[in-house]
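Q: Structure tokens for this one, please.
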Amino acid sequence: MINKVILVGNLGSDPKTYTFDDGNMVTNFNLATSEKYTNKKGDKVDNTEWHNVTTYGKTAELATQYLSKGSKIYLEGKIKTSKYEKDGEERYKTEIVANNITFLSTQRDTNQDATATATVTPTASVVLNESDDLPF
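A: Here is the predicted structure, written as tokens:
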């Protein structure tokens, strides 16, 4: 079975990073994806979905260092749903655990955004890649 997600969107907030006692890191941010279409009545519709994204390890570290609100990214990961209890009620949280992030926009100077379309090594801050867990 495969649990794989691919999203392209913009960060809705600056990443928030937490460092554990053992030095491991986790970074969370919201990602907005949009689709535009014309409905049967001929009206133009703009539908935005919000996704909770979590990254770990080196990907979390680099995401914190290079991403900010409005950054456009391509990500690959998996869907994870957690169950928890709050005020005596069962609740669920669904998130995207990203293991590969490609920056589609970077800030090359303080006033101008540029688009990066090439895949570059993590040291150049464009591609963040954790190990793939593909079954094939």
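A few notes: The CA atoms of residues 77 and 98 lie 4 Å apart. Helices lie at 57-66.
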